[in-house]
Design a protein that fits this description.
Blueprint (H helix, E strand, L loop, with lengths): L1 E2 L7 H24 L3 H5 L9 H20 L31 H21 L12 H23 L22 E4 L2 E5 L15 E5 L2 E4 L5 H9 L11 H10 L7 E4 L2 E6 L2 E4 L11 H10 L7 H9 E2 L4 E2 L46 E7 L24 E4 L16 E3 L8 E2 L3 E3 L5 H6 L1
Parallel strand pairs: 1-10, 11-14
Antiparallel strand pairs: 2-5, 3-4, 5-15, 6-7, 7-8, 9-10, 11-12, 12-13
Length: about 450
């Protein structure tokens, strides 16, 4: 029961890794903010989201605070704007009314911070303190920017105007003909990490968990499977719904995933400004936790716990080790997973055989965030670092854990231990799910397995 160790590398390798992560994130930020007119940067398309220009300056402000002030000890460049870009001081719905930096000024500020931060990276020691060890602060900031890039991509999905973002579709995949579910053996495994240098505080520390055997879907639940739930009256039957979820869908008139509508006998969806038929083979996306939970109940199954999900994604039964990713310890490549906004949709269920786990489970990383049944809580021995507001203030609230990342997540902010969380009503996020079930002693497949 050990966890794998991430590749360490010498200081030059670490600096190159950090520089690449920062530049990759900034290229994506530029793509997401340069593709619309300035008026659209300052507009708020939904009270759930910030104006894009707020995200842009917030990215720069966080980078200044942590890399220029905390790491390099430099004086604040624009201390008067710190309160404007404090995410906890101003809810998203209120941000358009703030005296935000206009687009040109926000771009110039973020660019100046980035130039100075790269200079700091060239000379800063990458050891000697938890903030600088293995370049943690630089990795944290790259992850922070990529997380906001995903948020900005969600904002673009919520826009109703013409298409402004394009990307090639995933490669066509042969129809998946493998088993519908896989047995995950019971026993101990190492959850979380103490070895991943850029892991965030809620992923730490590594600790042992004992997990009974269970069955897990081989692939995420597809649009086609979800349509059967709809056609069977899934949104009309309170038997399948947690009471708060039933009240929510009834009061909001929800009867399908967000962005779906029906014309005649055809389901259509809006995707980044364009309307298209729903693709049956793709993992369902834009469903909230209440919907995922209701589907699982209707199917006679349940959502996996967060612990079950991570064991399925990391445990190698041949060695007893917890690996960094389902396929092993190597960083994600395009053959492993649909990540990094390389595409603007999930790949068909069963894609990426090179990314499957030793048990044969596919698409645990990328494509869609996967809801679990677990609330967001700290691991034993948790320590907030480097600030309480990243994780600690959310523990124990009305949040459900999501795992695995989506097509909108960059590899730097996605790994087998990475934890995301959101309210169970949230549907604008790129969220889907897979289901699980308990093992019964009389189960024929279980008897064969043992």
């Amino acid at each position: 029961m050990t966890e794998s160790t991430a590749p360490a590398g010498d200081p030059g390798v670490l600096r190159d890794r950090a520089r690449t992560a920062l530049l990759t994130a900034r290229d994506r930020t530029s793509l997401l903010t340069d593709c619309v007119q300035e008026g659209e940067l300052t507009a708020q398309v939904s009270p759930l989201m910030s104006p894009l220009v707020w995200d842009l300056a917030h990215i720069g402000n966080q980078e200044e605070q942590w890399l220029l002030r905390a790491v390099a000890g430099r004086a604040a460049m624009r201390p008067e704007i710190d309160p404007l870009y404090d995410a906890f001081e101003h809810p998203r719905a209120e941000r358009p009314a703030l005296p935000l930096l206009p687009p040109a000024e926000a771009r110039a500020y973020a660019a100046e911070v980035r130039g100075r931060a790269l200079d700091v990276l060239d000379s800063a020691p990458l050891h000697g303190s938890p903030l600088t060890d293995a370049g943690f602060a630089f990795g944290m900031i790259a992850q922070h920017e990529q997380q906001h890039d995903e948020t900005m991509l969600i904002t673009h999905q919520l826009r109703t105007g013409p298409v402004v973002l394009t990307a090639p579709d995933p490669e066509p995949a042969a129809r998946f003909t493998g088993p519908a579910e896989v047995l995950v053996p019971g026993g101990p495994f190492t959850m979380g990490t103490s070895a991943e240098p850029w892991a965030l505080d809620n992923e730490r520390p590594a600790h042992h968990r004992l997990v009974p055997a269970f069955f897990l879907d081989t692939t995420p639940v597809t649009n086609g499977a979800y349509q059967v739930f709809i056609e069977d009256g899934g949104y009309e039957d309170p038997r399948w719904w947690e009471p708060r979820g039933w009240d929510h869908v009834r009061s909001r008139g929800i009867s399908a995933p967000l962005f779906w509508r029906r014309e005649g006998g055809t389901w259509l969806r809006r995707r980044f400004g364009a309307t298209e038929p729903v693709v049956a083979e793709e993992p369902v996306v834009h469903v909230g936790w209440f919907e995922a939970d209701a589907y699982a109940r209707w199917a006679g199954r349940r959502l996996p716990t967060e612990t079950e999900w991570e064991k399925a994604a990391r445990f190698d039964p041949a060695t007893g080790r917890s690996t960094r990713y389902p396929w092993g310890d190597a960083d994600p490549g395009p053959e492993h997973a649909n990540l990094g906004q390389r595409h603007l949709r999930p790949a068909p269920a069963g894609s990426y055989p090179a990314g499957e786990s030793p048990l044969g489970i596919r698409q645990l990383i990328g494509d869609v965030w996967e809801w679990t049944s677990s609330g967001f809580l700290p691991y034993p021995g948790f320590t907030a670092f480097p600030y309480r507001e990243y994780s600690e203030v959310f523990f124990g609230g009305d949040y459900k854990v999501l795992r695995g990342g989506s097509f909108a997540v960059d590899a730097v902010a996605c790994r087998g231990t990475f934890r995301n969380w959101d309210h169970p009503i949230r549907r604008q996020i790129f969220s889907g799910f897979r289901t699980a079930r308990d093992v019964k002693p009389a189960d024929e497949a279980f008897q064969e397995a043992i």
